[in-house]
Each structure stands twice: as C-alpha cells, then as structure tokens.
Design a protein that fits this description.
single chain, 10 helices, 7 strands, globular, four-stranded mixed sheet, transferase, xylosyl alpha-1,3-xylosyltransferase activity, Nucleotide-diphossugar_trans, alpha/beta
C-alpha cells in the first residue's frame, strides 16, 4: 500500500487541468483544491512509469464480486481505448446538453441507451495508463485550446469534474472508451426523476443483470445483503 500526499498530487495536477476547471467545476472559478476532482484525467502524467494500469473508484461503493474480475475488463479494451467507464444512469447530460440538443434535433447526444449517448459516470474507472501515455489523441484533448473548442461546440458547462470531461470527449471520440456494463457501476441516485425528467428517467436508470458493484451516489442508501 502506498499513500500519496494530496497536496503533492494537486501541485502536479494543477498545470494540466487548470484550463478544464472553469468548464467542469461547481465553483465559479478555478480553485487549486478542485484539481483533485480531475485526478483520473491526468493520472498517466503523475504516476510512475512502472504503474501501467489503475482502477480508480469512489468511496460510496459496495462490492458484490471480486475486484479481480473488474481488472480483467482491461483485456476487453479495443485498440485505441484508454479508459474503461460505465454510462451515466440519470438524464443529467440530457439536461446539460440541452442547447446543443435543441440546435441538433437528430443528435444522439444525451439520449438514453442502448442507442443514445447518455454520458459517463466516473464512480468506477479503469485507467490504462500506458495507453493514455501513448495516445496522441487523448493527450491532444487535454490541451486548453481543445477543451475550449469542444465546450464551445457543445455549449457545455458542467460541475462534475473528470466525469464531465470524459463525457464531452466521449461524444466526439467514443473510440477512446471501453464501456463497462451497468452492473459494474449500478448507480442508485434518482435525483433527476423528481427534477423534471420523470417521463424519461427509467430509460436511463434500468440495468439488467446481476449487480457487481452498487454505487450509492448522492447519498443514496445501498441495499443490504
């Protein structure tokens, strides 16, 4: 077990993610402390080269299977994929992309699965650090000019840190991501059901199959065994 000093990590992260913070942070500006919410985005830049793969998870999870099984998902990455991530299970990005959706009525951006692009949830992440280091495309997308260009294209203003960044670049370059089955990140939050999206909520929230990891996001209780 290796413990990392959050201040040291943030110091390394800040120059890489400073430009994205104003687009994907809850605050109105760029806060030094906010950088930690973008840790996964630049993990390949701050971890030692000998670390080639990392699973990064939220704390509000309950495991129903061996985490080793999740690690085996790395073997299913297609060529060019750098990150494994599950889809967002609420219509949060249907909401965030409202202006882009209005201007592009035929788009799948923000639509529910299986055919739509609902965005991602970063509660469970498989980071192939070696692939992230080698991917010219991924590293180009970290550049401030590219972040600015895409946020303007999609009229994007988020508040969920790394998750927003992955969602936005996933709309443009889905080939960078290996989509995990919903059972690997069974989100339980139903906030958006009561905030204007009850008519479509279940299309995003349904998840067939035996749950491997429960995610009690937005302080939702996790079922007892």
């Amino acid at each position: 077990v290796i413990f990392h000093d959050v201040n040291v990590l943030t110091e390394k992260l800040f120059p890489v993610v400073e430009a994205m913070q104003k687009h994907f942070s809850a605050g109105s500006g760029t806060y030094y402390s906010d950088s930690i919410f973008f840790l996964s985005v630049a993990m390949h830049r701050i971890m030692p080269k000998e670390v080639t793969r990392i699973i990064q998870v939220d704390l509000d999870l309950k495991y129903k299977t061996n985490i080793r099984d999740l690690f085996e998902e790395f073997d299913n990455f297609q060529e060019g994929a750098v990150i494994g991530i599950a889809r967002e299970m609420q219509p949060v990005y249907r909401h965030t992309f409202w202006q882009y959706r209005r201007e592009n009525p035929q788009t799948k951006v923000g639509d529910p699965p299986p055919d739509g692009l609902p965005g991602f949830n970063s509660g469970v992440l498989l980071l192939n650090l070696e692939a992230m280091r080698q991917s010219k495309l991924y590293n180009q997308l970290l550049e401030p000019t590219m972040v600015q260009k895409l946020t303007e294209k999609y009229h994007f203003k988020g508040h969920l840190g790394d998750q927003d960044f992955f969602t936005m670049i996933g709309m443009e370059h889905p080939e960078l991501f290996h989509v995990l089955d919903c059972t690997w990140n069974r989100q339980l939050c139903t906030w958006w059901k009561d905030h204007g999206y009850s008519d479509v909520f279940d299309q995003y929230f349904q998840c067939e199959g035996q749950v491997k990891i429960y995610h009690g996001n937005c302080n939702t209780p996790i079922p007892e065994d």
